[in-house]
Amino acid sequence: MADISIIGAGSWGIALAVLLHKNGHQVTVWSAIEAEIKMLQKEHEHKDKLPGVRLPEDMVFTTDLEQAVKGAEVMVLAVPSPYTRSTSHSMASLVEEGQVIVNVAKGIEEKTLLTLSQIIEEEIPQANVAVLSGPSHAEEVGRGIPTTIVVGAKDKETAEYLQNIFMNEVFRVYISPDVLGIELGAALKNVVALAAGIADGLGYGDNTKAALITRGITEIARLGVAMGGKFETFCGLTGIGDLIVTCASMHSRNRRAGILIGQGYTMKQAMDEVKMVVEGVYSAKAAMGLAKQYDVQLPIIEQVNAVLFEGQLADEAVKNLMLRDKKIENPLLPW
């Protein structure tokens, strides 16, 4: 049994708290929002974010960050990506040398173009930082529906330790050394899921979505490999696997926001309607910054940015994609 703290009480944090408690660990959940913690202490259910998932009576809920960090063998950092830096900064003086932090949020910081684990390492250099990602909607994990994910870490020992912490009969955990590739796949698929949602909102069909998923993973892998990620990672659970589920499921806040945008909502109106952080909106500009830095073409992500931030009409964005210059699908294949 390990002492584990969940830093962030959103749907994903709560789902992992339930999973880890079922695995026999002592779990503490932290949130900066006092009303949220009081609700969890009283109801033992997050009625807003994960209704119907009962939380054990012996699970600890607190707004005291020191209580959550001190002595924890593993900290699961589950705050939305825009708050990763500020939360890490607040934790920094409390974290001991070698304490394990597992980032489970998905995104790229717009100003610095850093991945979330890079932000954590910058703010908390003494921590042992790992990541957990894959096709894993909180709504299903919280209900114990079989899910398969990947833990990424710089050393195999940490990866195997976390594999043992998280894995059970409904939560299969693979391990990988490609932390960068895992994080890039996780962040960029949210932008492509916005595109898939926009296509749904416009009333397009399965053919359109299949095209967006297929060409979307090509863009993600193109940039990821240019940055040093491994091609095999983008063919796996945190690449094509996570992209498929995020583009196809109504659990996906990115797809839901995209549907609203396709129906004529502005980006802000869509985010307000979804009532959760739409990570793809925050990663979209960063992705274009990285594309420029690494001289990589990302046509789908470029059009998503145009719709989100430049007033481009959604149907015009689709026409722009369809009428691009003629291409060979895979230039590496010989005739």
Task: Report a brief summary of the structure.
With 335 residues, the protein is α/β, with parallel strands linked by helices. The chain has helices spanning 11-22, 34-43, 65-69, 84-91, 116-123, 138-141, 156-166, 179-201, 206-227, 231-234, 237-248, 253-262, 267-274, 279-294, 299-309, 314-322, and strands at 3-7, 26-30, 60-62, 74-77, 100-103, 128-133, 147-152, 171-176.
Walk me through the structure.
It is a single chain. Helix 4 (84-91) links the parallel strand 4 (74-77) and strand 5. Helix content is 52%, strand content 12%. The model has no long low-confidence stretch (mean pLDDT 95). The protein has helices spanning 11-22, 34-43, 65-69, 84-91, 116-123, 138-141, 156-166, 179-201, 206-227, 231-234, 237-248, 253-262, 267-274, 279-294, 299-309, 314-322, and strands spanning 3-7, 26-30, 60-62, 74-77, 100-103, 128-133, 147-152, 171-176. The protein has an eight-stranded mixed sheet with strand order 3-2-1-4-5-6-7-8, with helices on both faces. It is α/β, with parallel strands linked by helices and 335 residues long. It is globular, with a radius of gyration of 20 Å.
